Amino acid sequence: MEPTMSQFEQLYRQVALSVAGNPVVEKVLSKQGWALAQRFVSGETAQDAIKAIKRLEAQGISGNLDLLGEFVNTPEPANANTEMILATIDQVHAAGLTPYNSVKMSALGQGQTAPDGQDLGYVNTRRVVERAKRYGGFVNLDMEDHTRVDSTLQIFRRLVKEFGHQHVGTVLQAYLHRSEDDRRSLDDLRPNLRMVKGAYLEPASVALQSKTDIDAAYRRLVYEHLKAGNYCNVATHDHHIIYDVMHFALAHGIPKDQFEFQLLYGIREDLQRELAEAGYTVRSYIPFGKDWYGYYSRRIAERPQNVMFVLRGLL
After folding, report:
1. Is 90 a catalytic residue?
2. Distance CA 147, CA 71 (A)
3. Binding site for FAD: what residues are annotated?
4. 20 to 30 A from 84, CA-CA: which of 147, 229, 239, 291?
5. Per the UniProt record, which residue ranges are transmembrane (predicted)?
6. Hey, what domains does the chain have and what are their CATH numbers?
């Protein structure tokens, strides 16, 4: 029996993520891949990212900055990452822009203990949200592998209660079995949520494995969040889902200012411009920094077409 396209794409993704985690592959791509990674990464510095924001804003597209890096094990790099993000927020404001940043709390010390006994990820993320709020900005707490979901949602709840949903949001991953329950559990916060399909290699015990099932779960998350009256960031490049969300909003009288489309930097820029020209809020997820390999490998794993781009560049 021939595998379906959905089965092929799922197998490709599993193999690509497994291969990317091989130390030999990581060493080769880390040495040779930066020129190729620049398709997905705006540059190594905050100034590179600010230039990207300004270029996109000229096309009616907003930016969401992400300093690349994750899974640090000691306080020193966690605190250093925090200082770099704070400096970036200051630089964005100085450039005449409103800060909008995504942060991975594992890069800020999540799971480690701060001097006052609290979670270091919470302490550092709070500093980031406080700085962004000073300039009228926004911070999105990225969601990572399933082992960090409980901690991330607990920290998110604390920060929303202190700073408000206008200044802090988080992410739900459609492929996790728990995400629909998690979404409902947050309704009392009126949360600003970014809906993604999920980009980590997770076991079937915690995550859906079929693309068809993940797509259906993604639509349910978005639709239920919109029907609850909450702000939704529809983060996908799947034009079928994008158009379905547009039609759903029209059919249910949901205004355009209750949701936005978020797409990745360097991918489907034609679609980003098309949506912006149609009057929708569009935001590009703009990564920058030197620690780009993990992000780059997940982009390769998302679509078979991406690996051909890499192979052509290496050859």
Report:
1. no
2. 12
3. 143, 173, 197-199, 211, 236-237
4. 147
5. none
6. 42-291 (3.20.20.220)
Binding site, residues? 104, 143, 173, 197-199, 211, 236-237, 298-299
Q: What are phi and psi of 190, to 5 degrees?
A: 55, 50
pTM, entire model:
0.85
pLDDT tens per residue across span 49-83: 999 999 999 999 999 999 987 789 999 999 999 99
Match 């547009």 to its residue by tokens: 246
Residue pair 108/69 in contact (Cβ under 8 Å)? The answer is no
In the annotated binding site for substrate, the residues are: 104, 298-299
Question: In whole angstroms, what is the distance from residue 146 CA to residue 174 CA?
Answer: 12
Predicted local confidence at residue 33, as pLDDT: 61
Please answer whether residues 162 and 205 qualify as being in contact, where contact means their C-beta atoms are separated by less than 8 angstroms.
no
Enumerate the β-bridge partners of residue 138.
Answer: 100
| Residue type, position 85, single letter | I
Q: What is the DSSP letter of 280?
A: -
Q: Name the catalytic one among 131, 183, 194, 283.
A: 194
Distance CA 276, CA 220 (A): 24
Q: Which two tokens stand for residue 189?
A: 């916060």
Collapsing DSSP to helix, strand or coil, 136 comes out as coil
Residue 116 phi, psi (nearest 5): -90, 5
Q: Is 194 marked active-site? A: yes
pLDDT above 90 coverage of the chain, percent: 75
For 167-201, b where at least 16 C-beta lie within 10 A, e where not — what string? Answer: bbbbbbbbbbebbeebbeebeebebbbbbbbbbeb
Confidence of residue 285 (pLDDT cuts 50, 70, 90): very high
Q: Which of 66, 142, 182, 215 is catalytic?
A: 142
